[in-house]
Structure formats: C-alpha cells, structure tokens
Amino acid sequence: MIEQPMPQGTGREIAPLVIEDIEARMKKGEETYGERLRAFNGRDATLDAYEEALDFAIYMRQRMEENAKIKLWIHIESKRILYTAEAAGLLHPREFTHFVNGLKNLLDGEPA
C-alpha cells in the first residue's frame, strides 16, 4: 500500500453529498422496483453487495488506469509545449511547471 499524508481538505464536505446520493438512489429504486429496499425481499443481500463491490473495484481500477495515462500524456505534452514556448520566449518555465503540476494534482484529488 502507498503511504498517504494526513488529510487537510479544503473542498466540499463529503457526507452531505453521500446523503444526497443515497436519497436519489432510494428514489430510483422505488421507481424501478415499485418499492424501497426492504429486508426479507427474496434476494441474497450478501451476493448483491459482493457483485456491487466487484463492479466498484473494476470502475476504480479503470479510473486509476485512465489517470495514469492522462498524467503521462500531460507530462509528455507539457515538455513539448515548454520547449516550444521557451524557444519562442513566450513562457517562463517555472510558471508552466506550476500549471502542469496543478493539473497532475487535480487528477490525484489534491487542490490545484
């Protein structure tokens, strides 16, 4: 596992967003199945949850792979743009590096 720093968030509080998502999900379930989820409904909740967890893992791995490819593209393109801009005297390297690092941080979920 990768060691992570202590959280120091400056963005939106997450719990209210999750509550909104749960409420929307309950409404969608009621529209789809004609009722809200209840115990003893004839389904195996463990199997349902496990299948959802597998889907979640697949989507998260997809996102990680996409972020890695985007970071690589940003790195390669930023070097190309930096060399071109420097040669033309259009941009200070420090300013451009700060901008590129901000993009990479956004992909990592950090403040830009």
Please give a structural write-up.
This protein is mostly helical. The chain has a domain at 61-112. 71% of the residues lie in helices and 0% in strands. It contains three helices and no strands. Helix 2 (45-88) packs antiparallel against helix 3. The longest helix is centred in the middle third of the chain and has 44 residues, at 45-88. The chain is elongated. The chain starts with 13 loop residues before the first helix and ends in a 5-residue tail after the last helix.
Features:
112 residues; mainly alpha; elongated
Briefly note the structural class of the backbone: mainly alpha
Separation, N- and C-terminal Cα atoms: 24 Å
Topology, number of strands: 0
Average pLDDT over all residues:
86
Number of helices: 3
What is the overall shape? elongated
Helix content: over 70%
Low-pLDDT runs of 5+ residues are: none
Gyration radius from CA atoms, angstroms: 22 Å
- Beta-strand percent range: under 5%
Q: What summary fits the major beta sheet?
A: none
Order of helices and strands: HHH
Short recap of the structure:
The chain has 112 residues and is mostly helical. The chain contains 3 helices and no strands. The chain has a domain at 61-112.
